[in-house]
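User: Please predict the structure of the protein below. I'd like the answer in structure-token form so I can feed it into my own downstream comparison script.

Assistant: Understood. Taking the following sequence of 96 residues as input:
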Amino acid sequence: MARRSQSEPGSTRSSGRRRATGPQKYVPPFRGSHYRLLAVVLGVILLGFVVLAYESITLAPLLMVSGYCVGIPIILIWRGRFPWAGSANDRGSRRP
């Protein structure tokens, strides 16, 4: 079979060229709000261990499981914005 060197006009195949873009600014995946939430979750987990030292077999596991199984996944999944409150940058960029 012969290989075509050029695509037909109107086809959706890309020509293999990439757009020349400048270096993009690195955006860290976590923001300050993520680290504040992480501090709260770690505090809950630590509180669970402290309560466990006082032999509470009901409250301690609830605190630790809620920290490990609820708090940490929420931090990893959360995008960093609450749907009901935009950040200051969002408010400043809106124009009527």
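That's the full token string. The longest helix spans residues 32-53.
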